[in-house]
Amino acid sequence: MGTASLRPSVGAFSTVRARLLLWVLGVTIPIYAGALYMSRVATAARLEAGAERDADELAAKLAAEMDTVIRLIEGGIRTVAFQLEEIDPPPTQYEQRIRGILAAWPDVYGSTIAVEVSSDGASAGPFAPYYFRQGGAIGFSDLAKASYAYREQPWYRRAVDGGKPVWSAPYFDKGGGETWMVTYSVPFFRKLSDGRRALAGVVTADLDLAWVRKAAAGAPLGPFAAGWLSSPPGTESFVAPIGATADGSGEGSATVRAAGEAMLARRATFGMLPAGVAAEPAYLAVRNLETLQWRAMLLVPRAQLLAEANELLRRQLAWGALGLALLLAAVLLVAAGIARPLHALAEAVSNAGGDDLSFRLPERTRRDEIGVLTEALRRLRDSLQDHIRLRAASLAEQARLKHELEIAASIQQAMLPKRASAGDLPGAEVAAALLPAREVGGDLYDYFAVRDEQLLFAVGDVSDKGIPAALFMARLSALLRVLGAEGQLPDRLLERINERLAEGNEACMFVTIGCGVLDLRTGRIRYASAGHELPLLLDLEGGVRTLAAENGVAIGIDAVADYRLGESFVAPGDTLVLYTDGVTEAEAADGSLFGAERLAELLRDARDEAPAPLVQRIVDTVTAHAGGFHATDDITVMAMRFAPADVEYGRAEGAARWLVQVDVSAAGIERALQRVRGVLAARAVGADRIHDVELVGEELLTNVVRAAADASGRRLSLECALSRDEIVLTVRDDGPAFNPLELERVDLDAHISERRVGGLGVHIVKELATRCGYARAEGWNVLEVRLSREHAA
């Protein structure tokens, strides 16, 4: 804990009371505002729907009032037309019928019966008497006169062309009724002698537009401020104000009526007028009247329509403000009762700091949550004081254990062989790494020289982790060093170690271990395994294979165990890689394991790397696969390359090559032949062919040594190259020119007493080889012998 004071600083919203008020207002006001908004929207929608309903009712009422007259007139005129189709009265009767129409329907302004010229009819020429109301009398006008040309008038042509009753558009009947009117025209027909029906004439009834204005003016506007009854577009414009419309002339409604026609084009009947159309925002309702196919347009200002909604909103705001004030007063009263004891508690604990928890708390006098909190703080204070004391002791113990673990880790690492300790191994390069999953681990590796140029090596993995595994590993490491130094073979060595570790193993721990011995003279490996992963062998050519061996039971399980010894050969340049399961079982975040296949592929890619960088590359790749550092199992890797000092190795022209520097002596020849024998055995060349190669090599090297008058300072080498089909032996020396292939051929048929001494070995070489050749190059004798890899029977 720090030593800073815990006294709270009091700011604008740092007290419980202030925060309580803030939260109440923060929650209540948005809810209240949302409710007001939704209420106003609902009220406005209800009022708009009411306005649409009122518009429908007003239009229906206006149409009904006009229909009361117009439908009777339409029925009567159609009846007259029907009668005229049945009979063909003389011209004198047409006047009576027209006067009868005016008498029957007082609202009809005028009427005519325009008769077509027909050979079968009563008339022999254009006949269209027109009677109309003029003041209190009946006036007459002859529409058949040439100046009127009734056949060209729209009221006549539309009825004739359509062949059915039709209302005309508003027009001024100049030369006839001399007033603005609309005309209902009904055509009538008669049958001709040949059975066809021909147009006989048209019966009309005129309505003075003054009557239409009067009917519109008598309609009540209801909630609307203005309304107009207008003729359809494309006709002579006629506008009649509805009810007590302010703009009685209708001229001020031109822009409104244009907007209404646009609404009808969009199949809309109610909506807001676009800005600028009316003096103030307003709604417009448009309805088509069946009567005369005219439009009723009704206007109501938005402020007038929403006045009820606005008034409701004002009342709700007033009541809401009163409710908020009462709520705040109640919250303040409750918050004060909570905040005072809480403030007292805050003051009591404000002096607590660092390790000083000796603050005094108020005595518990309340039975509510504040009293419970006070008692809980008291118990917490006492518990914290005890915890601090125990924590301090625990930290000291942990520091001691950590220090001891660090010492144990350093001791464990010191038990492992250092790279420099292999300096006495001129025939091998060894590198290894161990990454424990904890401070100390249960893996181990070791390698050291034993007698007769033998290198013992081992890698093991204890079943557990941490300190128990490290102690078990220490016992195993000590036994391996002590018993391994006696020079016993790996199978017997593992049996003796198992006997020792199985005794008194009450913890039932066990260890898997692989142990081998490398003969630094021949490359022979004798290997035994106690349940451990078998090593991988990376050969000079880049191939990777598992070392041939038979696995036995892990050490420590049973005191009596039998381990089998496997034998293999490695050639100079080959690398043996030993590892624990922490490598192959390293798990990535997606659950995939690193695996033996991925390890083998890594070795193929790094076939030319020395053991030290190879080991580092494996460790880096595995830890990267596992997400940076493997935290569940120890990782141990050992790489051992067979690299005798007297052998150079490499690849050229598709073949692996080994160049052995030969001491010019019988012992040197034997040493060189051992190297070649090991190379061929490592590459699975048959024993018979290996014998042939040894025979050829021995003969070639012996001839060179025998021919040397002075061996001091002479340089001699034997190169063995292996391809898929051939074995190539090349002997080089810097002595005087000497070609043993030119020795006289031995007569094998002669008696042995008569044969010349020498030449028999060269003869055998030529017999075994597929091709032999000699060259003198830059002061060197170069003798090459090629043999097939398969032995000839």
Average of pLDDT = 81
N-C termini distance: 90 Å
Which structural category fits the helices and strands? alpha+beta
Strand tally, please?
A: 29
Strand coverage percent: 15-25%
Number of helices, where a helix is a run of at least 4 consecutive DSSP H or I residues: 16
Give the C-alpha Rg.
62 Å
Q: Which percent range fits the helix content? A: 40-55%
- Report the sheet with the most strands, covering strand number, pairing sense and barrel closure: 7 strands, antiparallel
Low-confidence stretches: 1-10, 119-123, 750-758
* Structural shape: elongated
Topology at a glance:
Layout lengths: L15 H71 L4 H14 L5 E6 L13 E6 L2 E6 L11 H9 L3 E2 L3 E2 L7 E12 L5 E12 H9 L8 E5 L8 E3 L12 H12 L4 E3 L9 E7 L6 E7 H4 L1 H43 L19 H47 L12 E8 L7 E8 L3 E9 L3 H19 L5 H13 L8 E9 L4 E7 L5 E3 L5 E3 L4 E2 L13 E4 L5 E5 L1 H4 L10 H11 L5 H15 L9 E8 L4 E6 L2 E8 L3 H17 L4 H21 L8 E7 L3 E8 L26 H9 L2 E7 L2 E9 L5
Parallel strand pairs: 17-20
Antiparallel strand pairs: 1-2, 1-7, 2-3, 4-6, 5-6, 6-7, 8-9, 8-12, 10-11, 11-12, 13-23, 14-15, 15-16, 16-17, 17-21, 18-19, 18-22, 22-23, 24-25, 25-26, 26-27, 27-29, 28-29
Helix pairs in contact: 1-7, 9-10, 14-15, 15-16
